[in-house]
Design a protein that fits this description.
single chain, globular, two-stranded antiparallel ribbon, Annexin V, domain 1, mainly alpha
Length: 336
């Protein structure tokens, strides 16, 4: 267990919320961004015991910080822009934003983030796919998925493929993009390397798009870059994501898995995944698998991962056939 002085800010937040309980944590999470919730949640999952002294240190640090920074923080510029963008009157939004933006240092990429997706699609659809990829890589996945929905499948694929290949973008490239869009969304000044795009960003976008789009896009990417398509697919739905599948679907998947494959796949699985699987098989089968895992000698990690990917492929095939539904894939689709 780390000492208090060695905890990061995220870890301190995690300890604080664990001490405050589930109800309070839920209320706090409602006020945080998705990225903040993810970071704190991951940190919380690393704790299984919090020493009393560490809890006191974290609570005292929170108390002292609260006294020092009484009140609340707000980004006035973002608050104003988002409020204007939420009025619903598109003509009025454009007029007001033009007036407001002229009073601030122009930030076109931020302006895009509060524009209607259809307006951004219209703005970008005639740009080079690499330019579109760079611009959309700076946006939140949910906003990007809505913008991409207006593009043809070929343009979607081209843009997503290029986004997956992006790692670092130099200031010179950003400047070129700014110049190309200057008349539409203003000017941005940047003096540092920016981390945009990549497969993680693409996965977040694909999971928010309409059902089936991910499959269509990946098939086209596979034609030109099979390794990249596999990398995206492996992140798009992982073995650990099985915990989000309902019990009926889980049982259908398990019926198609050989016992030796299932046993091997559980060698490195989390307790959460093991519990999910064990809760959907008989007690006898569960005991046999547990005994086989304990008796299993050292195995290659690549063999375990291949067994897990085989199960993932079965789940995705059953979903494609319409036999099961995997929650969280297909944008904002609601399960009833």
């Amino acid at each position: 267990m780390k000492e208090f002085s060695k905890l990061t800010g995220i870890e301190k937040s995690a300890v604080l919320l664990l001490c405050l309980g589930e109800d309070t944590t839920a209320q706090v999470f409602r006020e945080l961004s998705d990225d903040e919730v993810r970071m704190i949640s991951r940190a919380m999952m690393n704790f299984d015991h919090i020493p009393s002294q560490l809890a006191r240190d974290v609570m005292n640090d929170y108390y002292q910080t609260q006294k020092k920074y009484a009140g609340f923080f707000v980004d006035g510029e973002d608050f104003v822009k988002n409020s204007i963008a939420s009025t619903g009157d598109h003509d009025r939004i454009d007029s007001l934003l033009e007036d407001v933006i002229s009073g601030f240092d122009s930030r076109p990429l931020e302006t895009i983030s509060i524009m209607e997706p259809r307006m951004v699609s219209s703005l970008l659809q005639n740009e080079h796919p690499q330019t579109v990829a760079l611009v959309l890589s700076t946006q939140k996945p949910d906003h990007t998925s809505k913008i991409l929905s207006s593009f043809s499948i070929d343009l979607k694929t081209e843009v997503i493929y290029r986004m997956a290949k992006i790692e670092k973008v130099s200031p010179e490239v950003i400047t070129q993009i700014e110049d190309a869009l200057k008349q539409e969304i203003g000017d941005v000044v940047s003096q540092e390397q920016h981390s945009f795009g990549g497969t993680d960003k693409v996965v977040e976008i694909l999971t928010r798009m309409e059902k089936g789009t991910d499959r269509d896009v990946l098939e086209k990417i596979q034609d030109v870059d099979q390794d990249l398509a596999e990398e995206i697919q492996n992140k798009l739905f992982t073995f650990e994501d099985l915990v989000n599948i309902d019990n009926r679907a889980m049982q259908m998947i398990l019926r198609e898995i050989k016992n030796e494959t299932l046993t091997l796949s559980l060698k490195t699985a989390s307790e959460t995944v093991k519990d999910k699987i064990f809760n959907n098989i008989s007690e006898r089968a569960k005991e046999i698998i547990k005994e086989d895992i304990e008796a299993m000698g050292p195995v290659r990690l690549s063999d375990v991962e291949e067994a897990q990917q085989g199960i993932v492929r079965i789940a995705l095939r059953l979903e494609e056939e319409g036999q099961i539904v995997i929650a969280g894939r297909g944008g904002q689709e609601i399960l009833v």
